[in-house]
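Case 260 in the screening queue. Each case pairs one protein sequence with one candidate compound; here the compound is nicotinamide-adenine-dinucleotide. For every case the pipeline is the same: read the inputs, emit a complex structure as tokens, and attach any notable structural observations.

Predict complex for case 260.
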Amino acid sequence: MPQLLEGKTGLVVGVANKRSIAWAIARKLDEAGARLVLTYQNERTESEVRKLAATLRDCAAVLPLDVQDDAQITAATGQAAEALGGGFDVLVHAVAYARPEDLGGRFIDTARDGFHLALDVSAYSLAALAREAEPHMRARGGGSVMALSYIAADRAVPGYNVMGVAKSALESIVRYLSWDLGDGGIRVNAISAGPVRTLAARGIPGFGTMADRAAERTPLRREITQDEVADTALFLASPLSASITGETIFVDAGFHAIGL
Ligand SMILES: NC(=O)c1ccc[n+]([C@@H]2O[C@H](COP(=O)([O-])OP(=O)(O)OC[C@H]3O[C@@H](n4cnc5c(N)ncnc54)[C@H](O)[C@@H]3O)[C@@H](O)[C@H]2O)c1
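Case 260 output:
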């Protein structure tokens, strides 16, 4: 039987280390037959990302990409398309950042520059990346864009603060992009993941307690894994989700459905 992503290509943004959700997604897409390009944020993560990329079946390139830099976005999407032989079918956005002082404490105290930074890196970057990726995805006759969100987009999660506001914007951007890109056969969706113990998660004060509490209150009574998020990413990247766009899919062991 042919593999689900045989002949497909993808650009994965957001790998920092082996715990990154983006890394679980990259491995899953690679196993399913896709040829990938990975990016790294800066010199601090470059060697780790290169080391991980070398373990993939078929990684076409590893490129620098700071999503706050428009020139780097244009360069990375263009170089990825070239390395992958003329465009790509899948774009994974798994990027978020807020200043430590804007997480924890009270949301009301968020300063203007911290707000701008968090929204720029964690939300606007999806629109900027999708815009530059668009011609390279249209060249392939369509494809799938996905971003990673969290339930704090819908509910006030104390401590998550400005990142919750960024996730609300991100999910709204997903819906607007689904309209803009739909006529090119490009689908755009978000995965709202339950707590996963990654580098970004460690930056959120009280994350451990939040994860423990969420696990007690999920219908499945357990935490989720990066690998489970990656399974849904594979579904969204594949023709199995052909008519799904503008959607946020919860991969959170059912936490969002419960009022406890
Ligand atoms: N871990 C969780 O509990 C959880 C839950 C729901 C959603 N998410 C989301 O999943 C995504 C991936 O996070 P993760 O948990 O795998 O953590 P992670 O720390 O492994 O990944 C975050 C990534 O963002 C990148 N990044 C930050 N600023 C950047 C910039 N300016 N330019 C380019 N890259 C930049 C980092 O280099 C890193 O690769 C994020 O959007 C996060 O909000 C995480």
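Case 260 observations:
- The chain has one domain: 9-251.
- Residues 157 and 164 are 7 Å apart (CA to CA).
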